[in-house]
Amino acid sequence: MKTITRRLGPAQWDTWYREGRAVDRSVTDAEADRFLRHVSLSAGSSVLDVGCGLGSFSRQFFRWGHNVLELEISPAAVEIAQRRGTQERLRYGVHDFDASAVPTTLQSGSFDLNVCRNVLPFLDHQRFMVDARRRLRPGGQLYVLVRVWSERGGEPDDKPWQRGFTEEEVQDLQNGWAEQERCWLGRHTALFVSDERRRTD
Ligand SMILES: C[S@@+](CC[C@H](N)C(=O)[O-])C[C@H]1O[C@@H](n2cnc3c(N)ncnc32)[C@H](O)[C@@H]1O
């Protein structure tokens, strides 16, 4: 393991996606099961997938009838994801969530669900958590999947596209949310947070 000091820009991610590295984590049955237990979405909900990679998680929402916006820092990942299918309710775009300019597609209060799978350790996550809350509609949820390492800044030498948080950092993410649910998926933790009690309709 080594200490992380550098931010990874779009060119680095593009290289890994073009080389076909296993950057994008597939959705296991266990994750899908936990997700469906903790997230309630009514038909036609609006979902934002942050750092969507090749978009395998998001395409599932599309199949379930939701409106999905997938945003990524890597133009190569977006290009590959688009080749796998674009529809009116399934949109892709290039966006850096650390950038100061916020596109009009990310208006306040416009999403029922923010998905953030294995992305937060690459972002200014404190800023991200503030922005994510602002983007959610009342009752909206944020889903975070992140690998948990005992060591701060852990990153495997051979897989720099895998980063994690310490347990303490995960607990920081939970601060200030009215509703929080958490479960383990192997070495990953899944976190579901919301400012309001989940809708049951
Ligand atoms: C480990 S991959 C996870 C991909 C996907 N979310 C998944 O579940 O497998 C991290 C992703 O975050 C994207 N990413 C990293 N920094 C970003 C940023 N500042 N803004 C948007 N996306 C970013 C990378 O391009 C990459 O696709």
From TrEMBL:
CDD domains linked: AdoMet_MTases (cd02440)
Pfam families the record matches: Methyltransf_11
Residue ranges occupied by any Methyltransferase type domain in the UniProt entry: 48-144
Keywords, comma-separated and alphabetical: Methyltransferase, Transferase
A single GO BP: methylation
SUPFAM superfamilies for the chain: S-adenosyl-L-methionine-dependent methyltransferases
Keyword rRNA-binding in record: no
MF (Gene Ontology): methyltransferase activity
Keyword RNA-binding: no
InterPro entries membership: Diverse_substrate_MTase, Methyltransf_11, SAM-dependent_MTases_sf
Protein family (similarity comment): Belongs to the methyltransferase superfamily.
Protein name per Swiss-Prot or TrEMBL: Class I SAM-dependent methyltransferase
Organism: Streptomyces zaomyceticus
